[in-house]
Amino acid sequence: MKKGVESEILAKTGNDSVTRRSMLRLRPQKWLNDEIINYFLKNCLASRDEKLCAKDPGRRRSHFFNTFFVQTLFNEKNVDRKIKGQYNYEMIRRWPKLVPTRNIFELKYIFCPINSNNKHWTLAVIYMEAKKIQYFDSLGGTDWEKLEGLLKYVKDEYRATHEDKEMMDANEWKLVPCTSDTPRKMNGEFHFFIFFGLCQS
């Protein structure tokens, strides 16, 4: 895999592809990029979830936001320091249209990959039925700002889909930090995403 043009496409499903450059990031001690994470979420986990739901009509769908969801929700790419990092629901207001049910409140889980300071990938999972948002980090950390922001997103989405009404059970929701039984970093972050993606979905 090392030999060849870095831009060569080594994996392709529909309109999604992974280049040799990205594949090389699967080696130990390498930083995964958006291309790898997004390809895995959409073509492995989301595809698996769709097949499971097809076999079981009573099973609730899950949704796997790509790596740009949290970045956009928190204006993390904004060059203005006053705005960068600030929560802004309007930036992702149309994103739920990409959800299989077009309504997040009909989902079972929502997976939100998080780029932590451009150094490390973590994962937040919104449990729509259990009314909790949990943080998973193979290094054991917890980004409370992201957890609180995702809960605010759920509340804002409720208002947007229920004629501006407040979410009645908002006080029942819990924010769960990374727990001690969360497996610590194994042989690379990709294994971490595989483990939690398959277990939770």
TrEMBL record:
PROSITE patterns: ULP_PROTEASE
Gene3D superfamilies associated with the record: Adenoviral Proteinase, Chain A (3.40.395.10)
SUPFAM superfamilies with a match to the protein in the record: Cysteine proteinases
Organism superkingdom: Eukaryota
Ubiquitin-like protease family profile domain sequence ranges: 16-201
Entry GO MF terms: cysteine-type peptidase activity
Keywords: Hydrolase, Protease, Thiol protease
GO BP term, example: proteolysis
Sequence similarity: Belongs to the peptidase C48 family.
Protein's name in the database: Ubiquitin-like protease family profile domain-containing protein
Organism in which the protein naturally occurs: Cyclostephanos tholiformis
Lineage: Eukaryota, Sar, Stramenopiles, Ochrophyta, Bacillariophyta
